[in-house]
Request: fold
Amino acid sequence: MNLMRLRQSSHLRDLCAETSFSAAHLIQPIFVVEGLTAPEPIAGLGDNARLGLRDAVETVKRDIEAGVRHFLVFPVPAGKRADGSSPHAARAAEAIKRAAGTAAHVWVDLCLCSSTETGHCALFDGRGVIDLEGTLAALSAMAVSIAGAGGDGISPSDMMDGRTARIRAALDGAGHERVPIMSYSTKFASQMYGPFREAAGSAPQFGDRRQYQIDVRARTDAIASSRRCAEEGADLLMVKPGITSLDLIAPIREATGRLTGAYQVSGEYAGFVLLAERGLTSFDAALLETWHVFRRAGASYVITYGARHARRIGLPA
Ligand code: PBG
Ligand code: ZN
Reply:
């Protein structure tokens, strides 16, 4: 048996392909910054920029024309507050949903780090210890306001223990039983979030996020975290960063029976943007390669800054 025999033509390669992907499986992040009047580029993220409300609405309309069917909104408020509250998240959700109409599903990232003075995803008590109860209350209230403003789905990225149950209960209590939760269920403390933190103004002002994000060495914790989210009512699970969590996608799906996606995070994506700028890779082909690999590893969906390029690259709707 010569293994090269079936690789020699595109027809044979297509016959042997076991993964396929369509634009409907991709989610496009979008940064909606309060008070911004002109787009601000984000280092490393190519055509992804920090956008004011009006530019964000235009971008969403253009992306829908280009085939995007899911957005993940990152609301970035203008000022910081001690309690992390921000009316901007609901306003951003409302504007983007109005622009998308029924043409796309609008997920909204739920976290406190772009609105707290500390840049952390949690609130702290007077002794500098995470105030879990206060954080969960703040997250739940924000989730209800986002759903009330028309957000189609809530995506908690904070990693506070127990947040999925609290958010689910709060949503149900406010009559939002139909709003799904896509939890960042296995999210590692990673060096690959740099471009994002610049875009979202969410870099921690002291320490790091290791108290609440998962240690890359902790496989059991990584699976337990997703299992916890599933038990607490997460509709969709996620690993993040995608490339460095490939080995966990299938085990999580098996352990939970839930669909599990991968987040191709800002640092991963920036790698391709910067390589392409230096003429060292073909951007489109490299993107497509990684999406297929996520699918081969068992990912049901992919969050990627390149979702708007999917149809142009040749993926079906
Ligand atoms: C914050 C958040 C982060 C990302 C999504 N939500 C970064 C962090 O934990 O600091 C990362 C996304 C990316 O890098 O593309 N809750
Ligand atoms: Zn956060």
Notes: Residues 132-148 form the longest helix (17 residues). The chain is about 40% helix and 15% strand.
